[in-house]
Amino acid sequence: xxxxxxxxxxxxxxxxxxxxxxxxxxxxxxxxxxxxxxxxxxxxxxxxxxxxxxxxxxxxxxxxxxxxxxxxxxxxxxxxxxxxxxxxxxxxxxxxxxxxxxxxxxxxxxxxxxxxxxxxxxxxxxxxxxxxxxxxxxxxxxxxxxxxxxxxxxxxxxxxxxxxxxxxxxxxxxxxxxxxxxxxxxxxxxxxxxxxxxxxxxxxxxxxxxxxxxxxxxxxxxxxxxxxxxxxxxxxxxxxxxxxxxxxxxxxxxxxxxxxxxxxxxxxxxxxxxxxxxxxxxxxxxxxxxxxxxxxxxxxxxxxxxxxxxxxxxxxxxxxxxxxxxxxxxxxxxxxxxxxxxxxxxxxx
Length: 349
Fold this sequence. Notes:
Layout: H1 2-22, H2 45-49, E1 74-77, E2 83-86, E3 93-95, H3 98-106, E4 113-115, H4 141-146, E5 151-154, H5 160-168, E6 173-175, H6 182-196, H7 199-220, E7 228-234, E8 242-244, H8 249-256, E9 260-261, E10 270-272, H9 275-281, E11 285-288, H10 297-301, H11 310-313, E12 317-319, H12 323-326, H13 332-343
Parallel strand pairs: 3-4, 3-5, 5-6, 7-9, 7-11, 11-12
Antiparallel strand pairs: 1-2, 7-8, 8-10
Helix pairs in contact: 6-7, 7-13, 8-13
């Protein structure tokens, strides 16, 4: 009996124990479980602070092609038939003739002239340049070399010996042939333009000159007469003055201006004519190219026997600047215009 009570006590204690364990809710069993995944990756602090490395494309290496310098060298045949080579258009020029100086300034290359021949007096700016002396005097090589030119320009007035002497000391010499027509003068301008890189300005100048010539020619086409003209170049000996022969620019200009040059019948570019021959020719107009040396119409009228010449009787004696005919450059057109107005004033009122 006693043993039975002990068994019952044990059973009761066990029941109480089990009941105590059963009082904990089932939900409480999940408190210590890990939370469910939320489909987003969890980053640690270290991972969040790590910089993101991006792939950077390396630039392609650019290979620069070598730049070729433009070829500025010139090879031009001069009036002597000599090939003259320049590394580039001339920048320091010594002009050995007044006509060349005038051409250089007229085409816009005046600033490239560093020296001039002594008689180069036009334009006025040219007078400020150093002179290397006269072409008619002994060649002054030292004066030319002092100017350090890259080009020396000459005309047929410079002797072959002087040209050779300049070349022997290392100077580059270009001989510009004297033109005998206006078209040849235009070509001479173009040649100088090539040597100095002034082609565009020169073409504009030539167009302007051609237009002026065309105007004179159109006017002269209306002329009804062709007066005879005596052009006096030098009257140092008034009984045998010098005049322009056939083929000279003065002969050409007189013809273009509607006159007849009485000197055209003589041989030679520049000829002397006796007073007797002049009286026989009886020119209707006298043009004084030597007026720049002080010769006047009164001087001509006072010469023995000249009072019977038609030009003297009618007072048709005119001063004229000989540079406009003896220097083959753009001012030849100035000379043509002046002669046309002298010979045919009725066409230019």
